[in-house]
Design brief:
This protein is mainly β. The chain is built from 1 helix and 9 strands, in the order αβββββββββ. Strand 6 and strand 7 form a beta hairpin.
Length: 221
């Protein structure tokens, strides 16, 4: 994870270096753009929740990888305060596998989405430091090698984070943002085929949470 975060931070320094100051009004209004970053979602798997199958004990799977997506938001300005609402959709290759006595457990995160409020204060003529919080969702697939079926679920939860943006002379903004996401648990009750997993029905429960660090580039409409 250190290499991924280091690359994101290095790119943020390149993006935010230089550039002329823009007017404060450039913070206001509708905007859209792109994000690129790195995420880690920790999956707390429990394969011994219910039923007669046994299925092994808890497993921790970290799904890590790059993310990229689109951003859409709206700001209002009141003096040095900037506040508004923002949504984003991220896709990427977040995945991870851990070996266990009953076979490998794997998790792949297909998509992440957030809808958040934002509020911040302008720093000088060109910067904005802000906090953000709201709803989050993800779609993820959990796999267990052997006779266990894969299962895919949509997870809902919350997110909160902080960020920094810099105005550019063309009215666009670039910056870096860190988000913590925490999702509700989901489960799947199944009966392994082929005599695996003890032969009886049992539940695999997943309780995911994680962190996303990303670069942003947005432009007013």
């Amino acid at each position: 994870m250190g290499i991924g975060i280091g690359a994101v931070l290095a790119a943020a320094l390149v993006l935010t270096a230089g550039g002329a100051f823009a007017q404060a009004d450039d913070w206001a209004g509708l905007y859209g753009g792109l994000s690129l970053g790195y995420g880690e979602v920790h999956n707390d798997l429990n394969h011994n929740d219910t039923g007669t199958g046994g299925g092994g004990g808890p497993q921790d799977v970290d799904a890590t990888g790059g993310t990229g997506g689109i951003v859409l938001g709206y700001n209002q300005v009141n003096g040095n305060m900037v506040y508004g609402i923002e949504g984003d959709l991220m896709f990427g290759g977040l995945d991870g596998t851990v070996a266990s006595g009953g076979g490998n457990h794997s998790v792949e995160v297909d998509a992440l989405v957030t809808l958040r409020g934002r509020a911040g204060v302008r720093v000088g003529e060109m910067g904005l430091i802000y906090g953000t919080a709201g709803l989050a969702g993800q779609r993820a697939t959990v796999s267990h090698s052997g006779a266990h079926p894969d299962w895919t679920r949509n997870y809902v939860g919350w997110t909160a984070g902080v960020g920094y943006e810099r105005l550019l002379s063309n009215g666009g903004r670039v910056g870096i943002e860190a988000l913590y996401v925490d999702f509700s648990s989901e489960s799947d009750v199944h009966t392994p085929g082929g005599g695996g997993g003890g032969g009886g029905p049992h539940a695999l429960v997943n309780d995911p949470s994680g962190t996303i660090i990303r670069l942003r580039a947005v432009f007013p409409f």
